[in-house]
Amino acid sequence: MVRRTLGWWILLLALVMPEIAQAHSMYQSSVLLDIHNNEVDVEMQLPSSRLGDVLDVAINSTTLATQSDRIRAYCDARLSVKDTHGTAWKLGKVSIPEWRMIDGTPYIVIHLIARAPNDADKRNFILDDRIITERLRSHAVLVTVRSDWEGNVFANNPNLVGIITGDEQTLAIDLGPGSWQRGFGSVFRLGIEHIAQGTDHLLFLLALLLPAPLCHLGKHWESHASVRRSSSQIVKIATAFTFGHSLTLALAAFRVVHVPDRPIEILIAFSILVSAIHAVRPIFPGREAAVAAGFGLIHGLAFATTLADLGLQGWERLQGILAFNLGIEVMQLVVIACVMPSLVLLSRIEFYKAFRVTGALFAIAASSGWMIERISRRSLGVDNAVNVVAVRSAWIAMLLFLTALILYTAKRQKDSQPASSL
């Protein structure tokens, strides 16, 4: 009774303080469940000291290979999954044990796949885990759903579902109703939030948009372009950027390419700097779409880092890439729709040059600061300065449109008045 009460206290603390559930101690195991359509990937993290105690053998990184078969057989005989009617799920072979340091503590990590019977409720099952707890009754096993696409659970925010102890060696797991739309919708919203909160991605997009309603003459921006030409230019830039980041997002998500985060972040800041300089003075006129595609490749690698944190696999990963990309595109279109009408109107008046240069200089200052920060790994407070503007972006966009409308209307009225005769 005392042990059971202790187990419930541990569960209560883990639910109230999620960080406790994610932290390890040398006296507990973890079972991490990755839920798929008709199977569950099971990862078991077993403290080497406790596992060695129950097997009466010293287990360390050197002796692990010689004890591999024994560990696999021991775990295979003491773990089972069944549905609520008692029908056993089919368990795959236990993987070769892996030595891993987790939070400074040595663990033995093994994997297996549990497949549900065809007619079973795949989201409602019972886990029976007697590994270590069979002999060490006080041992605790934290059971966590690490990812569940249909249940809207991802690796960056896992869900503790219960605790197994020597007194309670079975755990009923009810995942609740699930559908692919829940996971798709959640990752779609993540794509929207990534752009909405990603000030560097937004600043890059805005820097590209600043000269979009203009025509260039040599090394200078001159008269405004027609609405049709401006719209065509914007579509080309947005499409090219989408193609670029979609390509590298997919390649990185499927681990075809991998680039460390730091160089990517530096190159993103560089992309803003180049685009902002172009907004002041054309350095790649007529090739904006090609440049957007090239820099899109870099931004896609940064997007992939966010997607990788979700821990998606197989078909779910493909759905996640699609949902995340759609979220990014929707938010980009919202930004373009909010900003571009104002830029087109302002480009018809002389005020636009001052506005364009001011905006570009802001982007140059921010991107230069980011590059210095990311190269030197020292904070200059650039994020704080940019966020002062970013948190007011909706109001700024509204004020910009009203200003553009008033100034453009005033210019039209002035131009429509007949010249006074002398």
TrEMBL record:
Pfam families: HupE_UreJ_2 (PF13795). Coiled coil: none annotated. The keyword Cell cycle does not apply. The keyword Cytoplasm does not apply. Keywords: Membrane, Transmembrane, Transmembrane helix. The chain crosses the membrane at residues 233-254, 266-284, 291-315, 321-347, 354-372, 392-410. This is HupE/UreJ family protein. It comes from Terriglobus albidus.
